[in-house]
Amino acid sequence: xxxxxxxxxxxxxxxxxxxxxxxxxxxxxxxxxxxxxxxxxxxxxxxxxxxxxxxxxxxxxxxxxxxxxxxxxxxxxxxxxxxxxxxxxxxxxxxxxxxxxxxxxxxxxxxxxxxxxxxxxxxxxxxxxxxxxxxxxxxxxxxxxxxxxxxxxxx
Length: 155
Fold this sequence. Notes:
Elements: E1 3-15, E2 23-33, E3 38-49, E4 54-66, E5 72-85, E6 89-101, E7 107-129, E8 132-154
Antiparallel strand pairs: 1-2, 1-8, 2-3, 3-4, 4-5, 5-6, 6-7, 7-8
C-alpha cells in the first residue's frame, strides 16, 4: 500500500450540542501511505448545515492508522484544521471504522465519527425606541459537537 493515497468521503453528522447544527459533509483527502499501517495527508471538506442553511469548508491535516493488514481491516483516523465560510473556527474529527479491500490499492471505508467545530459568531442587534436608534454587536464562540457515520472510497 506504500505511496500516494486518496480518499473521497460522504458523511452525515447529527448535532448533539443543542444548536441544530446537523450537517452533511463531502470531503477529499490526499497524502502518503508510509506502509500498510500509517497514512498522513491533508484535505478539504464541504459542509452543509441542514437545519441552519449554512456552509463551511474545513481545511485539515489527516492522520490514519490501519490496525492489521487483512482484506477487512479496522482503522482509526484523526482530522484537525480550520473551517472557513459561514461557520469559521477550529475543526476536528475522530473516527473508527472498517476498511474493505478491493482490487489493487482501492477500498471502501465505513466509519463512526465524532466531529467538533468552533463557530466564531458575531451577533448584531438593532432597534429603535423613543426616537433613538440603538445598535449592539458582540462576538461569541459556540462549540458544535456531532456524531455520525462516514462512507468512503479509497484509491
